[in-house]
Amino acid sequence: MSKFYLIDQNTQSPGGPIIETYPDTIDVLEVISGKRLPWDPDTTITLKLSKSSGDFRPDLVTYLLPLFSDKIKECLTKLNVDNIDYYPVFLDNPNTGKLEPGYWLANIIGVIKCVDISQSDAKQHPLSKRYTFKSFVVDEALTNSQSLFRLAEMRRLIVINETLKKCLEECELTGIRITNTRDYEGD
How far is CA 34 from the centre of its chain? Predict the structure, then answer.
């Protein structure tokens, strides 16, 4: 059985960007829906940083919107990960008065329902079909051989396969956390 991993921002890395405001034109739920966005491919997004933002710029920012750095975008492109639409992002830094390039809003296309409930630490909500997960196992047969995807069961999570994990580790990315789905500690 293959292993799968969650990739997200390491929030323990100090001094990272803190996004203060998002444009009204961006619907976070739409961005994590797995659908193509009805945006012009040349859409540029400006996100205002909080004055309490530090100077550290991780390769992945996952608070609300998935922001990928130039470096992680380049790595994924070289690895032929093609189910992501990218939109350039500028960070408006009130501490310097400058717009910082170097990030992309990453719209991951498609969501996959692939959690093996019988092998996972999952609890069904009494009034719905939704589950709360402590840890979970991905059924590889249901992933359509995708190396990076969002879960239908928890769309805010980004899952990668073991092969992609190893390749990304070779890219020497900073400020990211890669966690085995079995070690996930709940949503």
Answer: 12
Regarding predicted confidence, which is higher, 112 or 42? 112
Find the angle CA(164)-CA(28)-CA(23) to the nearest 5 degrees: 120
Strand ranges in 63-120 using DSSP code E only, listed in sequence order: 67-69, 84-93, 98-108, 111-112
> How many other CB atoms are found less than 10 A from the CB of residue 1?
9
Encode pLDDT of 29-80 as tens digits.
999 999 999 988 888 999 999 999 999 999 999 988 999 999 999 999 999 9
Structural domain boundaries enclosing 18:
12-108
Establish if 70 belongs to a structural domain: yes
pTM: 0.92
User: Tokens 């047969």 — which residue?
Assistant: 141
Select from 79, 108, 137 the last residue of a domain: 108
Helix (H, G, I), strand (E, B) or coil at 62: coil
Same domain, 90 and 118: no
Question: What is the distance between the alpha carbons of residues 21 and 134, in angstroms, rounded to a whole number?
Answer: 31
Give me the DSSP letters along 113-136: --B-GGGSEEEE-TTSS-EEEEE-
With respect to residue 5, please indicate whether it lies within any of the assigned structural domains.
no
Residue 111 one-letter amino acid: V
Tell me the average pLDDT across 152-181: 94
Return all residues near 46 (Cβ < 8 A) that are at least 6 apart: 23, 89, 90, 91, 92, 99
29, 85: one domain: yes
Report how far residue 145's alpha carbon sits from residue 167's, in angstroms, rounded to the nearest whole number.
Answer: 16
